[in-house]
Write a structure and sequence with these properties.
189 residues, single chain, Protein Transport Mog1p, Chain A, seven-stranded antiparallel sheet, 25% helix, 4 helices, three-stranded antiparallel sheet, signal, PsbP C-terminal domain-containing protein, alpha+beta
Length: 189
C-alpha cells in the first residue's frame, strides 16, 4: 500500500515532469470546496470524469492545451490530464508520431527508462493508446523506480492524455488505477 509521504512525492514529481508545478501549493482544505471533478475534452466531443474523491487542484492553460492536476486529499495520490489542439489532424500515423514524440521527451527525463508495454485502444469510440514505462527520476522518490502509465486519446486535431505514476512495487494497483482513469472518458451525447 502506498504511504502518504511516498504518494505526495509521486504527485509532486508527476506535476514537475509534466510541467504542472505549483499544483501542490494549494491546500487540500481550499480544494475541498470545489465541485465534483469533470471536464469537457476533445473540443466538446467527450467528457472526462475523475474517480470519486479526486478533485481539480489546478488547471493551467498554455497555448492550445490545458493541463489539469487532480488530487485525492485523503490518499495524497494524483494524476495529470492534458487536453489540447494539434496543428494537424491526428489520424493514423500522425497520432503515433505525437505519442512517440511525447515518449521521447519523457525518456530523456527519466533514468533507467524501460518500456513495459504499449497497446492501441478504442476508448468511447476514439482512437487511443496506452504506454507503460518504468524508470527513475533524478532527485525524486529516493532514487527508487516508478511506474508511469500514459493514456492517449485523439479525434481530428484534438488530443487528450492522462498520466499517473506509482511506486514500481505497486504494479497491480497502478494498472487498476490506469484502467479506472480510462473508464472516466466518455463520448459526449
Amino acid at each position: 500500500m502506498l504511504n502518504r509521504k511516498t504518494a505526495a512525492r509521486l504527485l509532486l514529481a508527476l506535476m514537475l515532469t509534466t510541467g504542472a508545478a505549483g499544483a501542490w501549493a494549494q491546500s487540500a482544505a481550499a480544494s475541498s470546496d470545489q465541485v465534483v471533478s469533470s471536464q469537457v475534452i476533445l473540443g466538446g466531443q467527450a467528457k472526462f470524469v475523475a474517480p470519486p474523491g479526486y478533485i481539480k487542484v489546478r488547471a493551467k492553460e498554455t497555448g492550445s492545451m490545458v493541463q489539469t492536476s487532480y488530487q485525492n486529499a485523503a490518499t495524497k495520490h494524483g494524476f495529470v490530464t492534458t487536453d489540447g489542439v494539434a496543428q494537424a489532424d491526428l489520424a493514423g500515423a500522425a497520432f503515433r508520431t505525437m505519442i512517440d514524440t511525447y515518449e521521447a521527451k519523457q525518456r530523456r527525463a527519466m533514468q533507467s527508462y524501460s518500456e513495459m508495454g504499449s497497446k492501441n485502444l478504442k476508448i468511447a469510440g476514439f482512437d487511443g493508446a496506452q504506454r507503460d514505462v518504468q524508470g527513475t527520476v533524478e532527485g525524486k522518490f529516493g532514487g527508487k523506480a516508478i511506474l508511469r502509465t500514459t493514456t492517449f486519446v485523439a479525434s481530428g486535431d484534438r488530443y487528450f492524455f492522462v498520466v499517473t505514476i506509482s511506486p514500481a512495487d505497486d504494479a497491480a494497483n497502478h494498472q487498476d488505477f490506469a484502467t479506472t482513469l480510462q473508464r472516466g472518458i466518455s463520448a459526449a451525447r
